[in-house]
Amino acid sequence: MKKIIRFDRHARRRMKWRRIPEEEVKLILDKPDKTEQSIKGRINVYKTIGTRYLKVTFKEFPDEILIISVVDKS
């Protein structure tokens, strides 16, 4: 079963400010360059897309993935 991807308001705001589309976030989740554990059971994934190095922080639940933050680390 494929999990639902839900975006926190904070993540949506950062995506809008940095012009990061949902498709790029989903690509990072599917094929990250790097993955690391974070605090409070969160996971950070990183990927280079073009000239940008993006970081997505999310938390996984049984039926969904909650995107908490999206950052352009370039």
Could you name the key traits of this structure?
five-stranded mixed beta sheet, alpha+beta, 74 residues, 45% strand
Describe this structure as you would to a colleague.
This is Dihydroxyacid dehydratase/phosphogluconate dehydratase. It comes from Candidatus Scalindua japonica. Pfam families: DUF4258. InterPro entries: DUF4258 (IPR025354). The chain has two helices and five strands, in the order βααββββ. The chain has one domain (4-45, 57-68). Strands 1-5-4-3-2 form a five-stranded mixed sheet. The longest helix is centred in the N-terminal third of the chain and has 10 residues, at 9-18. The chain has helices spanning 9-18, 22-30, and strands spanning 4-7, 34-37, 43-49, 52-60, 64-72. The model has no long low-confidence stretch (mean pLDDT 95). The radius of gyration is 11 Å and the shape is globular. The protein is α+β, with helices and mostly antiparallel strands and 74 residues long.
What is the compact description of this entry?
The chain is α+β, with helices and mostly antiparallel strands and 74 residues long. Helix content is 26%, strand content 45%. The chain is globular.
